[in-house]
Structures are given as C-alpha cells and as structure tokens.
C-alpha cells in the first residue's frame, strides 16, 4: 500500500502537468499523511538539508565551465581539431561528431551543453555535405549522451551524493564505458552511411593538423588536469569543478580572447538558472528519499526481488530494463534522485559493486535522454537545429539501439567498467 501511495501520488501529479520538483514534494506530503507523520518543520528541514551538501557545489561549477567553453571558443577548437583529424575520410563528419562528443564530454560533463554545441557547429556542415538531416541530427543527439559518462560528470556527482559512494572512483570508472559508447556510435554511423557516395573534402595537410592541435591544446589539457589532480589527491571532485570553471574562464578570456564581459554576465545568469532548477530538484527529492527510508520501501523492494539476489547478472538486467522504462518518461536527474535510494539497498544485498552499478545506472539514464517521448536531448537538437521532433527521433533510433547493446555488454562483462579502477587505485 505504501508503494502504491508513493507512486500513485507522484505519477498522478506528473499527469496533471505539475513540474517534477513539485510532484516530488507532493508525493512526499502524501507519504507523510499516510504514515501519520505530517509535520511542516520536518518537510522544510529535509528540503533545506537536501541542497546543503558540499559535493553538490560541483554541479554549478561544471555547468558554468560548460557554458564558458561553448561561448569562449573552446568547443569550436575541439571541433576544428576533430575535423582536421578525420574530416577527410568517408563519412568523416559523422566521425567528427563522435570524436568531438567524446572530447567535449571530458570538458563540461553536461549532455545538454554538449548536444547544443555539436548541433550548432556541425549540423549545418553535415547537411551542406549531403548527409540526411534526420540521421545527422540523430547522431549528434546520441553523441550528446556521452557527456554524463566520460568524466567530469554532473550525473556521477548527483549519484555519488545520493548513494554515498566515491565520486572520484565513479569518474575513473566512466572513462572506458564512455569510449565504448563512442566506438559503438562510430560503427553504427559506418553501417548507416556505408552506401553513401558523397564528395569527400580534401585531406588536411600536416601543417593544418598541427595548427588545429596547437590551437586546441589549451582546451584538451583540462581533462588531463582534472584526472591527474584527482589521482594525486590534489583536489576533490568538487574542487575539480572549480578548477574547470576557472581554467575555462582563463583560457576563454586571456588565451583565446573570445569571451567579452557582456557575454560573461549572460553566462553567469544561464548557469545560475540551470543550477537553480537542478538544486531545487535535489532538495525536493531528498524529502521523498527520507520518507522512502522511514517507510522502509527499500526492504519491500528487496523482498520483491529476493529470488534474483543469487544471480547478479539477472538482477542487473531486470534493474536496467526497469530504468530503461522509467527513462522514456522521466529526465535523468529526477530518475537518479528517486530510484537510487530504492535500488542501492538491493544492490548491496546482492553483493554488487556500488561503483559498477553506479556507472551502469548513469549510462542507462544518459541514454534515457534520447528515448522518446520525453528525450531532453532530442528537444535540444530539434530546437537548435530547427528540426521537427519526429525527424530527430527517427534518426536517433539506430544509434540508441547501439548504445543499449554496449550497455548490456557491460552488464555481462563487469571488467569493462571496473578495470580502470585497478589502474588508478
């Protein structure tokens, strides 16, 4: 009955069009009434404590870094470098999208920011070269998914705080899965475009490649600084976000000199607005998380799935299918905040490594950003690229299928995720 009250109130509020943060608060209040615990002070205290977290400071700074990179010329130089490397091969622009997506993911950690930058920079070029508009938009949308997987990652920060696991280890464990998804997208692009007969752009000379590499080196050094700093214990993930924002500001303002003071003010406003949305979601979700714990819902879920506890692979497949279903209707952040408190006791009871589960969980939620009908990244690509939503949806289907295949390969072969941890720790 408790599960029904929680899910019924949450889904009912969302069906009425209530924003997800307020729907979470409504479901929390419904649970409090059901448990005869309603107290406005408890509600307010958990709401405030939900956002009062030092690790969550990484969220606004990574968002700020992403905005600065897009406006300050760092993203443009990453794309130019990728064009110089593989732009001349058959279907080269598609490989540029994937390569640039991986490189941008190592800078901002925001799927929306990466997808918007790739759409604005590369979609017109792909259409002009003769590639189908819907397939090009679909590839760009799918490449944006890599953003929350390759470190730094806002998704890993939120999961790490909610599940109380090491954010640094989540960052390191996300490297190989992110690269695997990039390879899967490249192979799918080759398969989709293998029959195309388009004129190829001329190969860049060695001097042009060197010039592009030299201009992008300032941007490419950022992920190196972050990973080395985390590995050497120079700073925490939260401090790494500050380093990323300050470094991006320095490069955009002093080195590339493309960031004006007027644009900087708008960047701060945009980052602040996005942060406010995320932090309000986190705070509202913590109210529900506290009540989920009080109502002992995780124990009920464990009892429900107890027959699968002896088989970690079957349990993970069942969880991944559930998250896939939820991802079609809910955005990434609320899914993490709602499902993590429920699933983590189950994962621990089954003896599954929480870092391994966290990476799979974030990968699945990231792919959920391109699963219709909600598909946040699909809306971003359609809006920035001036495309119809159904065009982007059709174009993304083969790439989304490839990403799910890669995800289930990681379910069957855990070492693809856990191996990097042995290199760093």
Automatic annotation (TrEMBL):
Domain TRAP C4-dicarboxylate transport system permease DctM subunit as annotated: residue spans: 7-415
Signal peptide segment: none
Spans through the membrane: 6-33, 93-123, 135-159, 171-192, 213-234, 240-256, 268-292, 312-330, 342-363, 369-385, 397-418
Keywords (A to Z) from UniProt: Cell inner membrane, Cell membrane, Membrane, Transmembrane, Transmembrane helix, Transport
Main location: membrane
Domain of life assignment: Bacteria
UniProt xrefs under InterPro entries: DctM, TRAP_DctM
Record's subcellular location: Cell inner membrane
Record has Transmembrane as a keyword: yes
Pfam families: DctM
Record's bilayer topology term: Multi-pass membrane protein
Entry function: Part of the tripartite ATP-independent periplasmic (TRAP) transport system.
Family under the similarity heading: Belongs to the TRAP transporter large permease family.
Subunit comment: The complex comprises the extracytoplasmic solute receptor protein and the two transmembrane proteins.
Name of the protein described by the UniProt record: TRAP transporter large permease protein
